[in-house]
Amino acid sequence: MFQIRSWPETILHVDGDAFFASVAQAVDPRLKGKPVVTGQERGIATAISYEAKKYGIKRGMRFVEMKKMCPNCIFVRSDYELYSLYSHRLFEILRQFSPSVEEYSIDEGFLDLKGLRSPHHMGYEEMGRKIKNMIESNLGITISLGISVTKSLAKIASDFHKPSGLTVIDGKNIETFLKKIPIQKVWGIGEQTSAYLRKLSIHTAFDFVSQSEEFVQSHLSKPFFEIYQELRGKKIYELNLEKKTTYQSISKTQTFHPPTMDKDILWARLLAHIEDAFIKARTYNYRVEKVHMFLKTQSFLYHATEIKLKNQTQYPFLIRNELEKAFNKIYHPHVLYRTTGCTITNLKEDANTQQGLFQNLHLEHKVKKIYPFIETKKIDFGTSLFDKEEIQEKKVKPKPSIPFLDLSLIST
DNA sequence: TCTGGGGTCCTAGGACCC
DNA sequence: TCTGGGGTCCTAGGACCC
To answer: What is the distance, to the nearest Å, from the Cα of residue A263 to the centroid of all Cα atoms in its chain?
Structure first.
């Protein structure tokens, strides 16, 4: 059908097994070998150890259901700092084996191993085994590895045997291997597309790669044609070796557990999200041009709107009136809302932004001086003075506004 | 599965222009 | 009433990922 060499390229994919739960077990020996679930602070399962998965516990499950299925399950709080520490150590080890490492997510990475057999004096599979042993013995967690000729194939390989697996697919074995892979297991082919492909009698990854190029191009869009080529052993996706320093968008959302129709609470929540999103934007030195905000009703309908700013800004209180108008447009009284959220987009690097666009440079200069102070002192910008729980229980009614700063008090 | 939070990229279609 | 082509920019929304 299609013939390729054994190793035109060599990509290794590493995937942590139930990463957050494994890290929790690694730092606390009492949790070893026991069913552990993270996410206690929200009451919803985030990561589930393999011991707990046996009881049928799934992501998103609530505490009460979990306890019913697995009474001796241990529910622990999330600790993202700890996870990123382990992530760092994981990638440090990976870099000892190859200079080309992509940090795909906190617990997943791709390595380019091409041409490294002779410097390491070993074959690819042996290299994989060595990497695996080193990580498992140093970090006390298990990982699954896949080695193949493209990223897509390496990803399928690492998923094939979990936990603690090592699967190698060389160019000569692709076809045999893909016969065992249901189409929905392919990276990038989700629920919608796999349902569509099944209607076309394509049930496995092998069925997919058996189609002609013309067939795939005429029935599917570009990203799927790329996946098709990757599965046939043609490298399309390069490794992304750069650290993430740029964003297309930044979003903040939160679902609160008793839904509410209280206008003040919703407005305060939303402002807090907008403020948080802008804090992140400032960290990356972005000016913001668009603010998208939404309220999600209890029946999962979105009430959303968007503001496009004439003058891009880094400070939400400068656009407070626009924000409030937008909120009033989407808020409907007597509707129960469960989630508020915002996404800021059209992010422009500050240095490249034309200064002239900002009308009051003097004001902006002052604002820049005072803002770091506000951030470090955690001066209230909506809700942060109050405990989240208190607000949810309505013991405290938050003041739903960004206070205006009295800039005359600031000496420049 | 009665459904959390943070992202990315692609496509279709309308507006507008020549 | 019928009758053209093509380009660009923007937005909404879909689909997918961890």
So the answer is: 30
Q: What tokens were used for A320?
A: 């407070």
Let me know if A65 is a catalytic residue. no
Strand B bases near protein CB (under 7 Å) are: 1, 3-12
Distance A125 CA to C12 C1' (A): 47
Q: Are A359 and A270 in contact (CB under 8 A)?
A: no
Indicate if CB(A392) is under 7 A from strand B: no
- Our measurement of CA A219 to C1' C1, in angstroms, reads 37
Q: Greatest CA span in chain A, whole angstroms?
A: 76
* Two tokens, residue A181: 């892979």
Highest mean pLDDT among A117-126, A214-223, A238-247, A308-317: A117-126
Provide the domain count of chain A: 2
**Nucleic strand C within 7 A of Cβ A49:** no
Among A108, A230, A275, A289, the one annotated catalytic: A108
Look at residue A255 and give its three-state secondary structure.
strand
Final residue before a domain boundary, out of A245, A272, A306: A245
Last residue of a domain, one of A196, A211, A245: A245
- Give the three-class secondary structure for A106: coil
- Expressed as residue numbers, the domain containing A111 is 1-245
pTM for the predicted model, two decimal places: 0.83
* A407 CA – B15 C1', rounded, Å: 43
**A328 and A234 belong to one structural domain:** no
Strands (E), A46-117: 74-76, 101-105, 108-112
Q: Which nucleotide is nearest to A159 (CA to C1')?
A: C18
How do residues A341-398 score in pLDDT, each as one tens digit?
Answer: 999 999 998 864 444 444 455 566 666 666 555 444 333 333 333 333 333 434 444 4
